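Supplementary Note 3. Input sequence used for the single-chain structure prediction.
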Amino acid sequence: MECDSVHSMIERACRNIDVFTPLEYYTIVRTARRSQPYAVKVMTVCDFKNMKALVSTYVKNRSKFIDGSAVNWMKTEVLSYKKDASGVIEMSYDYDGPVNELLVTKAQGRSE
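The predicted structure, written as discrete structure tokens, is reproduced below.
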């Protein structure tokens, strides 16, 4: 995967360098690849969002598929989110296996 090669290049660049402050990592990452330097976006606390309240409000079901069978998250290999099927996650335990649907939002018009 592309991200694995990026991480490998950065780790290789850090190998023989003493780092004394976190700010030095920006320079190391930028210069890890000489021909096409990586673009580094410096992030602040404001760039990170706490989604806990959002998830607790909208995500209601994480344990049962629509057909009633139990979800095994540790075996999941494929997740599919479709724009036209809001609130439904398609999951599969194998790339060629059957696809199960997980309804994660509370149905509108129903009260729980």
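The chain has a mean pLDDT of 86. The longest strand covers residues 88-92.
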